[in-house]
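Bug report (template v2)

What were you trying to do?
Predict the complex of my protein with zinc ion.

What happened?
Run completed; filing so the output is reviewed.

Input:
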Amino acid sequence: MLIFWLKRVKYPMQGIILNIVKVKEEDLIVTLLTKKRLKTLYRFYGARHSQINLGYKIDFIPVYSTKSTLPMLREVLHLGFPWQFDRDKVYIWQQFIKLLYKHLKDIDELDEFYFLLLEKIIKKLKKQNPKRVIIEAYLELLEFEGRLHDDFHCFICENFIEEKVVLKRSFLVAHDRCLIGKKFDKAIMIELFKEKSTLLFDDEEVETLWEILQEGL
Ligand SMILES: [Zn+2]
C-alpha cells in the first residue's frame, strides 16, 4: 500500500532555464539545467501558465506521455531572485546563460558542478558587480574542465611567459610579442587564476575580460 502511494506522488524538480525555442503558435521547447543533466521539455501554451524567461530558476514537474517524445513541462513555479528587477544584472546573467547553453547543449548527463556554479552566481549577484561575478565563476568552470592555463606557457610559441600576458578566447594565455591585445601584468593574472578573484583588476580591465568571455566559453 505504501509503495503504491509513493509511486503516485509527483516530486517537483528544480532547474534553471538555459534555452527557450518558440514552436507552433505559442508552444515552447524549454531546456533546463538540473543537477544531473540538461532536460528538454515541451510546454503547451495556455492562459493559466505563468510566464517564463531565460535564466529563471523554477520548480517543475516533468509529465511523460506516450504521445510525445518530450516530457511536458508542468506545474511551473518561478523561484525569484532578490536582484530580478535589476535590469543590468539580469542582462549580464542572461548573456552568460546563453553562452553556457552553447557550451553544454550536446551533453546529456552533467556533473552537478554546473548547477551549483549557477546557484553560486545567483547568490553573489545580490551584492556584487555582475561582470566580476561571472568572470570569477568562469575561472572556476575553466579549472573544473581542466582548461585553466595557470602554467603560463604561451599557446602560440609554447614558451614561458615572464611579464606581460595577452588573453584570447577561453582565457588562453600568450606573450605580448605573439598576440595583439590588451596587456595584463602577469602578477595580477596569477592572482586571478589562483584566487579566482578580480579584486586587483580595474573596471576597464574587467571590461576587457568580459569581452573575451563573450567570444565563447
Ligand atoms: Zn609566445
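What did the reviewer find?
The chain is about 35% helix and 20% strand. The two ends are 50 Å apart (CA to CA).
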